[in-house]
Specification:
Elements lengths: L2 H7 L15 E5 L24 H13 L4 E5 L5 H7 L7 E6 L11 H13 L3 E6 L5 H9 L3 E6 L5 H11 L3 E7 L17 H8 L5 E5 L7 E4 L6
Parallel strand pairs: 1-7, 2-3, 2-5, 3-4, 5-6
Antiparallel strand pairs: 6-8, 7-8
Bound molecules: S-adenosylmethionine (SAM).
The site of S-adenosylmethionine has 25 residues, from helix 3 and strand 3.
Length: 234
C-alpha cells in the first residue's frame, strides 16, 4: 500500500520526537499524493461506506508503522472496518483488541456480528485479535482492558460526547503509548439517532497544547485524526 510513500514523507522525527510532554504540534493537511490507484481504503471489510477519510487513516497507519506499533486497542470499533485496516497493516502476530457497545452513541445495535467477522478474519491472518462487547466506561470493561498488557497505540472513537470521550481518555490513555482520537474537527456534527453533537474537538483543544501531537486533517474534512505522541514504546 502507500504507506511507504508516506514513510518517506513523514519520518518518525517529523512527528516531533518521542517526548509526549514536549507540546509540539504538526498538522498535515490535504492529499500530498494521488492515492486513488490501489488504495485499500477505498473499500471496507464490511463493504459499507468508509467512515474514515482515506488520507487521514492512511497517514495514521503510516505513523503507527513508523513507530513499530505491535499492539493496538480501538475504543468504538462498530463493524470493525477501521480496526481491520489498521491491524492488517501491522506486523503479523500483533495483538489487537476491538471494544464496542453495539447500539451505543454513534453506533447500531446490529454491528456486533460484523465486528466478530472482522476479528475472526484477522485471527485467520495470524493476528492475536479479540473483541469486547460492552460499555467502555463500565468498571468491568475498564478492568478487563487494564488487566491486559499495555498497548503501543489506542484509538478513541466511541462516544463522541465530551464527557464520554474524556472518560475514555482518562480510563485508557494511561494504558497506552500513542493515543489517537477520531473526529478532532467538525464541531456541530450531530449524531443521527439521538442528535448528540460531536464534542471531541472540545476535548482535543484541551489536550493538544499539553502534549506533542500530530493532526491529520484532509482538505474540507469534518473528521480528522489527532495523535498524542508517546513517551516511549516498549
Ligand atoms: C463512530 S463509531 C466507530 C467507528 C469505527 N471506529 C470505524 O472507524 O469503523 C462509534 C462506535 O462507538 C460505539 N460506542 C458508543 N459509546 C460507546 C461506549 N460507551 N462503549 C463502547 N462503545 C461505544 C458505538 O456503538 C459505535 O459503534
Amino acid at each position: 500500500m502507500e504507506s511507504k510513500i508516506y514513510a518517506q514523507l513523514i519520518a518518525a522525527d517529523d512527528f516531533g520526537g518521542s517526548d509526549r510532554q514536549s507540546s509540539t504540534r504538526r498538522t498535515f493537511q490535504g492529499r500530498p499524493f494521488d492515492l486513488a490507484a490501489g488504495n485499500k481504503m477505498l473499500t471496507t471489510f464490511s463493504g459499507r461506506k468508509p467512515s474514515q477519510n482515506e488520507f487521514e487513516l492512511s497517514s495514521f497507519i503510516c505513523l503507527l508503522r513508523e513507530y513499530s506499533v505491535q499492539s493496538y486497542l480501538e475504543v468504538g470499533s462498530r463493524e470493525g472496518d477501521t480496526f481491520y485496516d489498521v491491524v492488517s497493516s501491522l506486523p503479523i502476530g500483533s495483538r489487537a483488541v476491538a471494544l464496542d457497545l453495539p447500539g451505543g452513541m454513534w453506533g447500531k445495535s446490529t454491528t456486533g456480528n460484523q465486528l466478530k467477522k472482522a476479528v475472526t478474519a484477522l485471527v485467520a491472518k495470524g493476528y492475536q485479535a479479540s473483541y469486547i462487547l460492552g460499555d467502555s466506561t463500565a468498571d468491568n470493561v475498564v478492568g478487563s482492558i487494564l488487566q491486559m498488557p499495555r498497548f503501543d497505540a489506542i484509538l478513541i472513537d466511541g462516544d463522541h460526547r465530551y464527557e464520554g470521550a474524556k472518560k475514555d481518555w482518562l480510563n485508557y490513555a494511561p494504558h497506552g503509548s500513542i493515543i489517537a482520537f477520531h473526529d478532532i474537527v467538525g464541531h456541530e456534527q450531530a449524531e443521527k439517532v439521538h442528535g448528540n453533537k460531536v464534542e471531541v474537538p472540545r476535548l482535543w483543544a484541551e489536550l493538544k497544547d499539553q502534549y506533542g501531537v500530530v493532526e491529520f486533517v484532509d482538505q474540507g474534512s469534518a473528521m480528522g485524526i489527532g495523535v498524542i505522541l508517546p513517551l516511549e514504546i516498549k
